[in-house]
């Protein structure tokens, strides 16, 4: 793997290709740029941006000489490079934006934490609304959703919160509130965003978890990310799109349940 | 990121920590070692191996000085390094085992393809048996499974097969049967294993897809991996564990459906 170089003025611009209207999985990438203070363009806010996006994911797109076609957004274009898959884009950006812990094998530890938050925690939350089919609307699988959500809140939410509490309790997390090596990495931003979305969706269950006192480090971690100056500023702007019932994290009152004893 | 060094006799041994009885997600890692001809140990075949595994994933495990605890297997130990998450382990091993395409940014393209096969295709297949809850048995969610499977076979299977057919048709795949850069990478092994498991599970639907002639490159790719001398030899041994109804890929006759028109 190449040793990533710091950004210079000669570096090509970073271009994020992602859906408009929803924070979605693109938000993990946005938070990295925001925390690093590095400019990027975003099809969500560009006129014609969705045309660009649809060209990339068209069934006619075979990629180019050096880039395979992407299956789905988010997509990152950086000069001649076009890559997809959220954890992969974060892996590419992390060291370049100063959001990797350090040297050597640290990157694999940060990547594992980010994958656990993204492809475990966040994907399971997403699947709460799509138990039967990704292509069907929530309204077509409402009953199954409720069954799934009740189980998820009871078994899986404590599993993930407990896991990250352990990570934060361990020696490898280092001093301070962060997940690994005593410094803020892209895994911290990913876990923050995942918990933020989950708190929006299952507000009662997350409030109960907070109240229990079992996950104090997790909730301190959440507040520590939220208080980062650039993140705090960004969250207050319109660039931070609201959660809505088109995205990963949705609020349905009937699904906002607490775990039964 | 460190430039990975070729293995030498001084390199510490590779230790795979994974469940016994099922091929599961550990199989992706095994195939990399097999193709590379690099020895590794495997808790699936070691007496007391499951004790080792349970120690790693115990809720009492806080990791060590430099490694956060893993959430779940597969886990790779290599000297002092302990990492988890299948795509992350593959990312670490790929260049070290000579299964990465080349230099520079190639690794991010291979990683994206592997993630698409693993965390898209394979996870969706897995979820076909767990629409309501990962913790519930298939027997407790049979009806929902059938609804999900019918939809998956109709909409998602062609989506993934079509996507990889496009990747193989594109210029970036290079000469020969492989997904990227004209050489066999860990993404090829991942996609092979994913399709192999899916073919076991949905034999009618995959046979119909093959018959359709729409995905000829995909099925040629599958045969090309299967015919690699070390892979072919391995698949014929007992080390290649059979699919069973405990794993990612399961066969239930009532779920072996073809897409309705």
TrEMBL record, chains A, B:
Residues annotated as transmembrane: none
Superkingdom classification of source: Eukaryota
Domain GST N-terminal: 13-101
One GO biological process term: glutathione metabolic process
MF-aspect GO terms: glutathione transferase activity
Gene3D superfamilies tied to this protein: 1.20.1050.10, Glutaredoxin (3.40.30.10)
CDD domains for this protein: GST_C_Sigma_like (cd03192)
Coiled-coil blocks: none
Domain GST C-terminal: 107-246
Record's protein name: Glutathione S-transferase
